[in-house]
Structures are given as C-alpha cells and as structure tokens.
Design brief:
3 copies of one chain form a homotrimer. Chain A has 157 residues and is an alpha+beta fold. Helices cover 27% and strands 42% of the residues of chain A. Chain A has 3 helices and 6 strands, in the order αβαβαββββ. In chain A, a hairpin with a 2-residue loop joins strand 3 and strand 4. The longest helix of chain A is centred in the first third of the chain and has 22 residues. Chain A is globular, with a radius of gyration of 15 Å. At the A-B interface, helix 1, strand 3, strand 4 and strand 5 of A face helix 1, strand 3, strand 4 and strand 5 of B.
C-alpha cells in the first residue's frame, strides 16, 4: 500500500508540473516531460470510440515535439490568451518495475486578452509513464470530449 | 499520519473510479460503487439549508439503483451527450475501524452532440464509506449549488 | 519520500479546508487559515508579469482579514450567490523545518440566485505555509488569469 501511495504521488506530481509548465507558457519545457522517443497525441472521444486512428495532433520524439512548439510560437505571437488546466480523478496502475499507466480527467479554461473566460476543452489523459531516471511520459494521449476543435490549437493540452 | 494518508488515498481512489465509470457511460457499474443497501441522493443547497427533506432523486439499495440506470437507458437512448466530472478538495475523516466519511467538491461538464460544452452542475459530495471488504458508498449525497435542474437528469452525478 | 508524501497530504488538506470554509460561507473562519500576521493578496497575471505591485486586494494580519470579512458581510447581505472552488495540480516544496511553499491551480464557479452558473475566476495560488503548530498560510497570493474583475469581490478567492 505504501508503494502504491508513493507511485500515486509521483505520477500526480508529473501531471502537476506538466500543466504548470503549459499554463505559465513555458512551452520550451514541454518536450522534456516526454521520454526521448515519447509520443503525444490529441484525439476526440468520438474518433476513439469508432476506432478511427486519425488524431487531431500527433508527435513522436522530442525533435517533433520541439517543432510543434516552434510552430506554435510562430503562429500565436499576437494572441496573448492564457490557459488554466485542472486535472482530477487520477488513477495510477503499475505496469512493471519501470513503468506505470494513468488515466485522469482534465478541464482546460481559456482566458482571452479582453478577460473573457471560457471552457476550452475537457477530456481524459491516458498515459504510459517511464518512472526512471525520473518520471516522464512514454505516451500521453489527450482524448477530448468535444468534436469541436480549433484547427490551430493554441497550446498542447 | 501514515494511516491517514492511506485512508485519504483509498477514498480518493473510490471517488476517481466512480467518476470514470460515469464519464465512460458505464452506468451498469454504477450500483456496484454502493454497498448492497447503500443510498444515493441528489438535493440542492437551498433545500439542504432549509432542512427540506425532498431530494431531487433518491435511491436505496442496489435494485433501486439498477432501476434508475434502466430508466436512464430507456429515456436517453437518442441523446449522446457526454459528461466530465472533476472532483477536488477531498476531506476524509475516519468514523470507526470500518467506516469513513468524506466531503468533496464536484464540477460536472456536459458536452452536447454538436460539441458545445457547458457547466452542468457544481456542488458537494457528502459520503459515508464502508471500507471493507472493499471501499463502497453506504451513503452518497450530491448537494447541487444551483436550484436549476433538469427534471430528467441524464446521468447520476 | 515518505516525508514528502506526508507534507503533500498536510498542505492539500489545508487547501481543501480553506475552500470548503469559503464555499460554505463560513467567512468568519477565513482569517484563522492565516498566521497571526499572515498576508493575503489578490492580483492579476498581467500585473504580476509586468512587475506591477498594485494588488486587487491586500490584507495583512488577522485584524485586517476580519475587517475584510465584516465589509463583505455588510456589502453583500442581499446577494445570496454561491461559490464553488476547485483546486488542482498542487506542488509542494519544503523551505525549512517549519515552512513549505506551494503552487496550485484554482477555478471558482459562481452560482447566482436564479440558478445561473458561470466561471467566476481562474488562476494560481502561490503560498508560503507555516507548518506548526498547525498548518496556516503565512502568505497566500491568488493570481487571477483574467484582468476583468468585480471591483467588489463577493468573497475571498
């Protein structure tokens, strides 16, 4: 039980540091939350339920993740909106000595420059996490509840 | 302290598994989160403050909980909306060897078929939890902040 | 690691009890979450980023915090809106034997008397916490994402 509690703590801290990096607009740190060859995918619950493999966004490995950040920086230079991530209901399961999986709920709020605040996205994170040398995502899938989506997402979820 | 930490962990996991079952539309699993004779009640903060006993919804025992699921399945077959539950600020207190109580905040997001996302409900869960053989709700009360309510709730809160 | 887990637990419980006191309108308990000379500040992310020292609200010491509650009670006697706080992504760091710091995300929902529910505020808490004799805020800063703000905040964040 003690081990499970610690594993829960370790994984929740990873999720927490991840969202604080995004909400503070430290996008350049984002690829470092993944393993060297880690994958990131955004999809919708509808596509996931139908078994459609087409993600809204897909990136594998830190170079691709860095490219993604670079294009976001280029595209969004004049849009100073903010984001706020809430993460909840984190369930963690150990897969083996070195790996865990996690499911959690997320809610992302977008705050426009004029101060308007709106629900931007909600959904589930499905993660496979490498625990050593420090916890990092081997795979992070963000499954969005809504099919409505900005074609140009402002930041990663 | 170690014991309290474990109790907190156990109760938060129960809450987490509960909301994932609902959000994944596994309504048939819902009665299993309650003890055989467990009770579920939805009420409003206004009614609660006035001491009005009339709940928005009341069910006692797994057969009644299963009936509730059956009627929801019947009523909502053509409404494919989704829900996303966020749970926060969980406070747990041990009542005796076998029982704990918990208060927590919830926020439920509803995602309509057209993709529109809205705040559906917010409030507090007040729970009495049987800890063995595995953690289950003896009583779960969802106290909603708003008096506005769908007469036909789409899913349990 | 065990110690860190306990520290996390202790701080999250402080945050949880704080928001339940506010959401239950137990404003008179609010100053007791601070040390005798504790400070509370609300600011905006925009001001914080520009290094502007002007807070939206500032109070130092329990007498000032109590004054704040008194004026809220006076101003809002006819506005029975409710609030619901969600706290997420809590990161805790020990500063020394007696003190910890914490960063966390918050989301506050406001429920009007007619039942309308809306996003009221989102942002980050930055806290310095005295751990003994019991955990209390030496400093709590609520940094709001939006610049739009009620000049007369109904409750503390």
């Amino acid at each position: 039980m003690r081990l499970e509690t610690n594993l829960q703590f370790v994984v929740e801290q990873l999720h927490a540091r991840y969202v604080h990096a995004l909400d503070a607009d430290r996008l350049e740190d984002w690829p470092l939350f993944f393993t060297e060859n880690g994958t990131y995918r955004i999809t919708t619950a509808e596509n996931e339920a139908r078994g459609l493999p087409l993600p809204v966004l897909y990136a594998q490995g830190r170079p691709m993740l860095r490219d993604r950040v670079a294009s976001l920086r280029h595209a969004n230079i004049y849009e100073p909106q903010r984001y706020r991530h809430m993460v909840s209901a984190v369930i963690v399961e150990r897969l083996d000595e070195a790996t865990a999986k996690s499911v959690s709920n997320f809610l992302v709020i977008r705050i426009m420059e004029n101060g308007e605040t709106l629900l931007f996205a909600s959904g589930r994170y499905l993660d496979r996490i490498a625990l050593a040398p420090e916890p990092r995502y081997e795979e992070r899938v963000a499954i969005c509840d809504s099919r409505r989506f900005d074609t140009l997402l402002a930041i990663p979820l």
